[in-house]
Amino acid sequence: MFRWGVIFLIVALVAAALGFGGLAGTAAYAAKIVFVVGLILFVLSLFSRRG
């Protein structure tokens, strides 16, 4: 999951550098969502192994 978040972040940075504002915003938003979902799944997996 974190790999996809980093990939979307890199796409957003490249798109912003090239002047594609809409694409950069969309990729940054997708990176943020993927990162949060990955973080939530990581925390859930930590708690499920302790029980």
Automatic annotation (TrEMBL):
A Pfam entry, by short name: DUF1328
Main localization (coarse): membrane
A GO cellular component annotation in the UniProt record: plasma membrane
Keywords: Cell membrane, Membrane, Transmembrane, Transmembrane helix
Record carries keyword Iron-sulfur: no
Source organism superkingdom: Bacteria
Location relative to the cell: Cell membrane
Transmembrane feature ranges: 29-47
InterPro entries assigned: DUF1328 (IPR009760)
Membrane topology type: Single-pass membrane protein
Database matches in NCBIfam families: PRK13682.1-4 (NF010229), PRK13682.1-5 (NF010230)
UniProt similarity note: Belongs to the UPF0391 family.
HAMAP family for this protein: UPF0391
Name the UniProt record assigns to this protein: UPF0391 membrane protein DAI18_10080
Lineage: Bacteria, Pseudomonadati, Pseudomonadota, Betaproteobacteria, Neisseriales
